[in-house]
Amino acid sequence: MTHIVVLTGAGISAESGIKTFRDANGLWEGHDVMDVATPQGFKKNPELVLDFYNQRRRQLQDVNPNQAHFDLAGLEETHKVTIITQNVDDLHERAGSKDVIHLHGELLKVRSTKNEEDVSSWSGDLNLGDHCDKGYQLRPHIVWFGEDVPMIETAIAICKTADILLIIGTSMQVYPAAGLLNYAQTNTPIYYIDPKPAIESNAKITVIAHTATQGVRHFMNLLDH
Q: Which of 5, 79, 81, 109 could form a disulfide bond with 162, CB atoms 3.0-4.6 angstroms apart?
């Protein structure tokens, strides 16, 4: 069975109403990313950071998967599909995808500030004073700037096994995730879906300059021919 490895970024969730990571001015929902997405920001003002992610968590529960999410899940009927996402939402899972790796963490999980392996599901607000069983403050289970990406080695190993690599809605500028396409085998075809593609088609990469929903459907048509 053909193994399709899918790398997804903010562009696929944008069509569900989730704003992309940051605006052109470098702000994320009006905040400097260094204030809300770094360990230093959390140490400096934990209440601001917790409130920021509480808002993101609430927003996530008001949106739904879009057709691109559902089409990727549907591919599992005829192909082996592994999704490696930079997104922290659960829209792939809600659409039915079974094999999803979150490189940058998950919004609906929290972890102990003392032990990063102590991870729990969390759907409501997270506040100062919410502690793990050992009595340490909980924090969002998000990989912040400056932190290691624990799932990157797993993602690299999976990309090496891809028969087809499909990249959707990512600027290919955030490392180490942006380097994953370099681990695909030399003969592995790569498809890149983005309405404003950051790369051009070449012998190895086919660029599909569409939104995620349009582009995934176009990709599926190519698979059928």
A: 5
